[in-house]
Amino acid sequence: MISVKRNSEFGSLPFSETKNADIWRECFSSESERIAELGEKFMRYFMKNATREGVLFKTIKEITGDLNIPHQTLSRILKTLEDQQIIYRRNGIIGLWKE
Fold it and tell me: Is the dihedral angle over the CA atoms 58, 27, 2, 47 positive or is it negative?
């Protein structure tokens, strides 16, 4: 699991844009370059569209349409982020794990 510290400068979300890139790269280091790029794109999308509590209320269909990526690719990205305990998925929502 990657350790994530709360950054009050960015509201209630524990990630900052500058700190994120390193965390995301580490998360996707064992994936292909394309998956790593799309994973970072998804996390930027997540940060922009999530609530202050770190929850994204969008369907997979909405996300794939907004990001213009295939469903299978998004599923792989989400699985990787879940395995690294960056996000969780419950009842149709995607949430950010907080420390």
Answer: negative
